[in-house]
Amino acid sequence: MISPFPKPHPFPPKPILGQKPKRLPVRKRMTICIGMLAQDGLVIAADALESGDYLNRSVQKIMTWISTQAGNPRRQVAACVIAGAGNSGFIDAFTSELLSKIDGAMTIKDFEAYARETLEIFYSKHVTPLLAAGDYDFSTLIGAAFGIGPPRLFQTYASTLKPVMELSTAIGGGAPFAKQFDDYFPFADVRHAEVSAAAIISRTKECVPGCGKHTDIVSLHGPQIAPMKRLDRSSFSPLS
Q: CA 135, CA 68: separation in Å to the nearest integer?
C-alpha cells in the first residue's frame, strides 16, 4: 500500500530545548596581503583564498581605481589600489564606498583626510554595532597616487588609518609569518619588489593554513597602475 504524502506543517518546527539557533556562516578572508614601497612606486600583492564554514573559493582581493586626463583617456593622473583582510562583506562594502567618491583632482593630503573620514563613518555606522555579536573587524592596505608626487601606502585597522613608513607591511592571518622576511629584501625598484612580494606570499601559502589559491600583484608607478599580474598557486617567478 502506498502511504500518503506527509502533511505540511503550518508553523516552523520549534528548536530543541537548550539549542541555540545558528547564524549564517560569515565569509572571512584569512588572507595574506603585502604592501611594499619601491624606489619608483609601490606594490600590493595578495592571495586569493576566501574561507567559509562550508566552502573555500578563489576571489579577487585587490581592487583598483584610476582617473584619466581630460581628452586623453590613456594618461592616468590619479590612481588608488586597495586590498583587505577580515570580514569580506564589510571589506567589499567599504571598498565600494571609498572608491565611489574619490575625486581625481585631490591631492594626496586630501585623499588621506577623505579616506580617514570615510573609514570612521563606515566603521561607526556598520561595524561597531555588531562587534558584540562576533568578529566583524577588517583591515586594508591602500596605495594611492595623485598628481606628480610619489605613491603613498596606507594601512587601516578597525577605525584607524595611518601612513606606512616602513619599506613593507602585511595584513591578514599570514601577516606575522610574512613580516619575518622584512629584512631579507632590499629597497629596490618596482620590478624587484614584485618578485619579492610574490616570493613571500608563495612561502606564506605553503606554511600558513587559510592562505592559498593564486596570487594577484598590482603595482603603482606614480599615478600609473600596471596591469594586474596573476600567478598560479605555487609559482612566484617569472613575472611577465
A: 39
- Check: CATH 3.30.9.10 for 28-231? no
pLDDT digits (tens, 9 = 90+) for 180-192: 988 788 889 999 9
- The contacts of residue 57 (CB under 8 Å, 6+ apart) are 49, 50
Q: 232 is written with which cell numbers? A: 598560479
CA distance 55 to 73: 40
pLDDT digits (tens, 9 = 90+) for 147-191: 888 999 999 999 999 999 999 999 999 999 999 988 788 889 999
Q: How far apart are CA 216 and CA 68, in angstroms?
A: 24
All cell numbers assigned to 106? 585631490
Amino acid sitting at position 88: S
- d(CA 236, CA 121) in angstroms, rounded, equals 38
φ, ψ for residue 211, nearest 5 deg: -110, 130
Summarize pLDDT for 32-52 with one digit per residue, the tens: 999 999 999 999 999 999 877
